[in-house]
Structure formats: structure tokens, C-alpha cells
Amino acid sequence: MTAFLYPHETKTRRIIDISGVWKFKLDKNNEGRDNHWKDGLSDTTLMAVPASYNDISTEKAFRDHCGDVWYETDFYIAEEWQEKEVYVRFGSATHRAIVYVNGQEVVSHDGGYMPFAGKLNDVVKFGEKNTMVVVVNNELSRKTIPCGDIVTHANGTREVKPFFDFFNYAGIHRAVKLMALPKQRIDDINVLTDFDQSLGKVGYAVSALGAGDVSVELFDEAGKLVAAGEGSEGSLTIDNVKLWQPGNAYLYTLQVSLSEAGQLQDQYPVEVGVRTVKVEGTRFLINNEPFYFKGFGKHEDSHIHGRGYDAALNLRDMELLDWIGANSIRTSHYPYSEEFMQLADRKGLVVINETPAVGQFDVMMNFMAAGQGGESQSKFFERPEVQNEGMEAHKDAIRELFKRDKNHACVVMWSLSNEPDTSQEASDAYFKEVFAYARDLDPQNRPLTFVNFMLAPYGKCHAHQYADVICLNRYYGWYMMGGIEMDNAGEAFAKELAGWATENKPVVITEYGADTMAGIHKLPSVQWSEEYQCEYLDQQHYAFDSCPAVVGEQMWNFADFQTWEGIMRVDGNKKGAFTRDRQPKMSAHHLKRRWDKIDDFGYKA
Ligand code: BDP
Q1: Same structural domain for residues 304 and 327?
Q2: Which of 174, 322, 511, 541 has its CA at 20 to 30 Å from residue 187's CA atom?
Q3: Which residue minimizes the CA distance to atom 3 of ligand 1?
């Protein structure tokens, strides 16, 4: 768990951020591992950490690199830290990394969106300069999560082909921190909240490394102590509880302490929003009230930074979500930064939290196939490598995501996969196992879902029976029934929804969208114009409003984002309501007018 508790400084924990500008080298000939680059790099250039490395250089070789890249930096560890356990912690490195300190491996990690930490005590020189080298690799296969492939071209160039519609940004994407932790320490904390009228309940379970007695104190936002308890498990009550509500967050702080013989060994705070989540029939209940999701599927994506953490961007996005009347997002198609999740808790933004399982459908330009429907050409889930190594990687991704994000009030549902090919019979056994695995992992037992695509419309999906909520990505009026046919798109969509409604589960439309170039205006409208995007939205909204089982609409996408280059994408996917630099298209104003009239309970004025 050492990596999974966020690196907060407390009375007992010291954190130093060593992000910045590091040395960098592309491994163009794939020779670094054999030639011991782990011991130190020569002929380096510079790279920002955190950031994707792809969009910083002017060379194509950087942007389109396939394979390893190497980073190096120097750091000191204070002599006073000798008494502590010292770690280096990465918020994420995409998609896998090995970290060496003074030539020795301290940690390796697979999976591009999760934190990991390596212990340094035995390899560092305290009080002196140490060197860290990190090799990061961006390759994808059918066995990795997310999925993709590598093709080798006639001239020997290797290319990563992602089975997904976003740029395969890579590098050290989140902050790198040194941590000095007490040897006897808090290792993990679970919280479970409930309420009965004005009485709030916070159940907790703490596990610790080493001996010690656990005690907890619960503070309100003003810093006033509202409850306290002893022991590693228990339940606290709060009089006149202030609930965590969508758009109106309230966060208590659970201060956990570990002491031995009256001496404090460790202390760690967890922010706690008191709220409940439940699915009942076709309703999605937050705090026992029906909730209506309004918002977007997003990406962590911006100019120059790529997928690198950007605090200013995240705040701007929160402002825009608030302005447009959104109350929710999906972390399509991978877990977002811990800092984003903290902001969502703070702002009352409801989150469908998605694993990086995307591209479980091995057709190039699969977004086209996915959007248009028809017969699947893919045999993805029949492949032994998918059923074995792929399944294991998927389970790892689920386990780590749940571990990292389980205590976030903002998380109301887990999405286990985006657009897997569930038109295949073999997907049934696969998802049966994946859902069964995930069921036992969340202490809060939140609803589980995956996102269904057009190749498995109502009546043809082999996995929805395992999901608590039906999530649908649909492009009626774009990939199908586009142009002059769009006038009938709403009716066609409504017809499919009527089928799903018979499942007696809530339905959330997790994607619907039309590519739109900001600034193109056409009367009458044509595809790609801002007018068309608005008319397209009207068709979709007509369908949603016709179906009482629909409890949410998350347009694709919040903002334009970068994709692989190709004949279907003009400098990226342009389905944003906002441009990539976060300015509104006409559709943003259009959505705002609708969402301002729909309250969080779905009541449409
Ligand atoms: C869906 C995918 C999403 C794509 C979108 C699109 O879930 O990642 O970007 O379609 O085509 O297939 O715009």
C-alpha cells in the first residue's frame, strides 16, 4: 500500500517533490537495456517531468517513438532521514517503468495510470548525491491494458498502433516525490459512510505496519472535532451531519494516528464525504435521491503537456463544468490523477471512474466500426492471450484503481472497460470473471458497469447482465444516419433505448457526439459545422427524454483532444463542446441552456 496512500505531509511524514527538468534520451535503437543505460545516460536532451514527452520536441522521432525512453536526475536524501523508510514515488509513468537508483533497480511497474513506489534505504547514500535513472516504455499488445499492437514497417520503423481513439501519450505523467515515512506506520484505510436522517455514520478500518495502537478523530470543515474513536476498526457518528451532495460537497477529515506507549508514530488524514450510493430498479440513488448524470466523457489532454499533470488545466476544467451546468464526468479511458480526484471530491463533481481497459476490440479505426454497428470482425475474447495474460492485466488494473480511489466520495460507480467487443459470445465468460473479481474489491460496494458500444446493441450484448447500470456509447446521427438522415436519428435511438429500458436497470448514455470544427458555420447545417453539432444534440436529447430509464447524459467529449494521425481525424478528435484550449463552441452554450433546466434529480423544467 505504500504507494497507494497519497503522499500527504503530516506530523510524521516528509515529502519532497523532485519533478522538474530532467535529462532524457530516446532509445532509438532499443539498446539501452543491453548497454546498461541504467548506470547513467550520455548524450541527453532535456525533458519536463511531469509531461508527455511526445509534443515537446520538434522531431517526429520523439512524437512517434515506439519503445523505451530514459530519464535521469540527481537528488539528495537528508541524513536525518536515515531513521525513516525512504521511498521514491511516481504518480504514474505510461505505460510501464523500471526505476534504478545508483544503478540498482528499486521498483518496476506495469500500467500507465497508477502510482508506484520503490524503497531507497539500501541503495542511497544519505547526505550525498544520488542518481536516478528511469526507463519508460509505451508499447501495447493484446495482453496489455490498454490494448494495441506494434507493426514493423518495411524500413524497419516500429509503430505502436493503439486500439483506441486517443494519442498514445507516454512518459512520466505525474509528479515524482521522495517520501520519508515512519517505520511503524499506517498502511491502509477504508471508510464506509451512511446516514439516518440527521445522524451521519463513518465506519473505518485501518491496517498498520508494525506495532501500535490506532486512534481516529473526525474533524469538520471548520476544524472542529466531531467524533473520535480507538482501535483499528470502528464506527463514528456525526450529529447534524452535512452530507456530501452533488454540486454541494462537504468533507470531513478523518485523522488516523498510530501510537506506541503514548508516543505518536504516524498520522495520516483522509477526507471523507458522507454519502450513499445505490441502484434501485431503473434509478441511480445518491443519498437516497434519484440522480441524473449531466456531463461528459473527458480526457487528460492538452497542448504541449499531452497527458502530463496540469493543475491550472484541471481547475479551468472544473470552472467550465460548473459554468455549463454539468454535475458529473467519466474518467474515460483511464484513471485520472489523484489531484483531479481530490478536486472532484472538493467540488462535488460526481465521477464514473474507469479502468484503462480500452481497445478490447482489435480492429484498426475501431471507433468507426464501433459507431456504425454491424457484424464484428474481431475475435478478441477468443484469443488465449486475452483470456490469460490479458485477463490478469485487467484484474491488476481494477485492483489498483479500487485501492487508490476507494475512499473518494466523488466516485459513485466503477467502469471496468470501455467498448469491449461484447458482441462476441466469448465475452460472456470473460466478463463474468472480471465482474466477479471486482465485486469483492470495493469496501463501499459501489455499482459496477462497463461501457457498451454500437456493435452490441440491445439484444446482441453478451455482458450487460453482469453490470448494475447500462452505459451506452451511441453515435446515431454521426457514424450512422449522418447528414440528411440525421433528422431520424433521435427516433432510431429512442427505439433502441426502449429495448434497454426493459432490462430494469438504469441507463446512462456515456458517449454521444459529433465532430465539429470550431468556427465553421453553415446554414443549413452540414456535418462538422457548429450548427450541425447543436442539431445533433437535439436529436439525442429527444431520445433520452423519451426514455424514463435514462438517468444520465455524458456528451463526447468535454474538449477536443489529440489522437493518432490519420484520414479520419483532423489534428485530433473534434467532438468537444470546448476546443482543446478550453473555449466554448456553440454546442457548449446549447448544452448549458438544457442543463441549467435539468436539476440533479433529472427534473426537466
Ligand atoms: C468511441 C470511443 C471514444 C472515441 C469515440 C469517437 O469510446 O474513445 O473517441 O468513439 O469516435 O468509440 O469519437
Answers
A1: yes
A2: 174
A3: 165
pLDDT in the model for residue 386:
96
Full DSSP string of 61-81: HHHT--SEEEEEEEEE--GGG
Instruction: Please count the CA atoms within 13 angstroms of the CA of 354 that sit on its side-chain side.
Output: 23
Quote the percentage of the chain above a pLDDT of 90: 95
- Return the C-alpha torsion angle 581, 582, 584, 590, nearest 10: 140
Contact predicate 451/421, CB 8 Å: no
The parent domain of residue 62 ranges over 14-181
CA of 557 from ligand 1 middle (Å) equals 9
Q: How far is the CA of 165 from the centre of ligand 1 (A)?
A: 6
Mean pLDDT of 83-91: 98
Neighbouring CB atoms inside 10 A of 482's CB total 19
Give dist(CA 593, CA 595) in Å, integer: 6
* pLDDT digit string, tens, across residues 373-396: 677 677 899 999 999 999 999 999
CATH number at residue 195: 2.60.40.10
Q: What was the pLDDT predicted at 290?
A: 97
| SS3 of 138-170 | CCCCCCCCCCEEEEECCCCCEEEEECCCCCCCC
- Encode pLDDT of 320-343 as tens digits: 999 999 999 999 999 999 999 999
Hey, CA dihedral for 26, 32, 33, 34, is it positive or negative? positive
With contact defined as beta carbons under 8 Å apart, do 297 and 557 qualify? yes
Helices (H) and strands (E) in the chain, counts: 10, 32
**φ and ψ of 194, to 5 deg:** -160, 170
User: Does 262 share its domain with 281?
Assistant: no
Q: Which three cell numbers stand for residue 303?
A: 497542448
Q: Residue 8 domain-assigned? A: no
Residue 516 pLDDT class (50, 70, 90 cuts): very high
Q: Are 78 and 127 contacting, i.e. CB atoms less than 8 angstroms apart?
A: yes
Residue in 165, 454, 561 to alter for ligand 1 test, most ligand atoms within 8 A of Cβ: 165
| The total number of structural domains that make up the chain | 3
3-state secondary structure of 223: coil
* Residue whose CA is at the smallest distance from ligand 1 atom 4: 165
Asked if 451 and 415 count as a contact pair (C-beta separation under 8 A), the reply is yes
Which tens digits make up the pLDDT trace of 408-455? 999 999 999 999 999 999 999 999 999 999 999 999 999 999 999 999
Q: Is the CB of 301 under 6 A from ligand 1?
A: no
* Mean residue pLDDT across the chain: 96
Domain boundary among 241, 272, 303: 272
